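If you are new to this repository, start here. Below is one unmodified record pulled from the training split, so you can see the exact layout before writing a loader.
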Amino acid sequence: MNEELMQENGSNYIDSHCHLNSPELRGGIPAVLERARAAGVVRMAVIGSTLADSAEALEICRRHKPYGLFPVVGIHPHEVKDLPLGELPRELLDMAALSEVKAWGEIGLDYYYDLSPRAAQIEKLAQQLEAARALNRPVVFHVRDAYDDFWPLMTAERAPEKAELHCFTGSLDDARRALDRGWKIGVTGMVTFAKAEDIRAVVRELPAQAILCETDSPWMSPKPFRGTVNEPSRVPLVYRKVAEVKNMALDELAAQVWRNNMEFFGLEEDARV
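And here is the target side for that same chain:
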């Protein structure tokens, strides 16, 4: 995992989705952040999946603020089975209300693993959407093999104005439905996989203004590192492949994705280092 990627073309990159609070990465964060900086990755969204690791994401971002980290908090569909019945925990609502928290997520539906009962996934998704709307937070969605139930939940009263379909694996029709709402599409290292032509076909059709590039580290490591622990320093490989697929110059794509992140997360331009 320690091959260091060096910044190639002077572009600055944002990793819009990483889990520095994961068991695979939390023990080596200083070195991970130094490798990210060397590769030109100057902003990173650290994502919560449970109440505990949302709090950890917040703490990591505070402790390593000079590296451009910002937290996103929420309860992943795998983990909603552990939430109490009834209202969302007060601790989660209080965290999400902090100005340093830039979005609510990752939340959604996952019918591939089905680690939480589907009824609970739907209930807690609806509750978190209501809370995110009350706080005017953009939403980072995790949806896997569940779009048939996901889209009917996105009513005018419930759907967020700003959202991202993170680690997108849906169809071109799903992507178009997201684009019609003005949402972003998150592209991971899967775009580099030899058998992922379906993902590349979607990326080819996306306007650059809709794209966020992410590692989803420690998972989804791009080629040539597939099968190893992923980290934010590898997100330039995602940008490079997206630029190739879309026949764009890398610096042009990186500049556009930078603007996309600024707008989506409400980041300050002066954080560019």
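Two things worth knowing about this chain: Residues 162-268 form a domain with the TIM Barrel fold (CATH 3.20.20.140). The longest strand covers residues 103-110.
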